[in-house]
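Limitations

Structures in this collection are predictions, not experimental determinations, and the ligand pose is part of the prediction. Treat each record accordingly. The example that follows, with phosphoric acid mono(formamide)ester as the small molecule, is included so readers can see exactly what is and is not provided: the inputs are given verbatim, and the output is the predicted complex.
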Amino acid sequence: MDTSKHLLALSDHSKDTLSQWIERARVLKTETSGKALLGKTACLIFEKASTRTRVSFETAMYALGGQVVFQTRQDSQLGRGEPLKDMARVLSRYVDALVVRTFGQNVVEELARYATVPVINALTDLYHPCQILSDLMTVAEKKGEFSKLEFAWIGDGNNMANSWIEAAAIFGFTLRLACPQGYAPDAAVMQWAAEQAPGAVRLLRDPKEAMANADVVNVDVWASMGQEAEQQSRIARFQDYQVNAALMSLAKKDAILLHCLPAHRDEEITEEVLEGPQSVIFDQAENKKHMHKALLEHFILKA
Ligand code: CP
Ligand code: NVA
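Predicted complex:
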């Protein structure tokens, strides 16, 4: 499989390619409409809930003149056990891209192995690459060149954390993660980052240490989709990792705060910080649409 024809993980692509997508998304943000994808169709296959990713992918496709078909597990034959390799080959005869939100990374990999059209990972348990690309676009807008900035990740070592680790290793920026014991990011991802960019990524326990002097602060939910049964135990375990005004005060004075949303106010982040002057969450959410335009254009027309 040629992984450059798909977006399964950021680590399948070079720094130059990622930078081009960010630049292109910024250009597309200023263009009201285009017809680059006229006559093209994307199929969104979502096995988990979504507000932002679904609507931003759908409106991105429409903005470029294309169309979308949306499927869930329940209303497709996926829910009745049709093999992914059959689904990939059939859907490739109908549409020009598959945008997939699912549980296992193996699902998007299997679809990509058999599809003759690009597969874009719209979130798995392991990664959320599209989100980190639009978040980097937001950092570039707010802070300019970001390779010398210090990033903090406070909380769970989840899919978002794993994709941030890949981004840090690719761009070489400093990323300090503070995660409770037992909630570390994926070990293979950490290992890969350590080999690619020694010293760029540091895994800590103490959120204060991770936060000190940060330019960009990242927060996400304590229980991701699929972990609902652990919600209460995680709330208890993560109490010291709440991003509140006291913790936020340790970052640089002009630090920006990112949260990919949805947020649980007064769990992982206080209302005060989420709604405060350092929070750029709604620009961050908007940028998903512009980044998705850039990604659809790239993968459907060029990859
Ligand atoms: N940030 C994000 O992926 O949001 P949704 O789950 O609403 O798509
Ligand atoms: N880590 C979160 C991100 C939601 C966009 C989840 O997987 O549920």
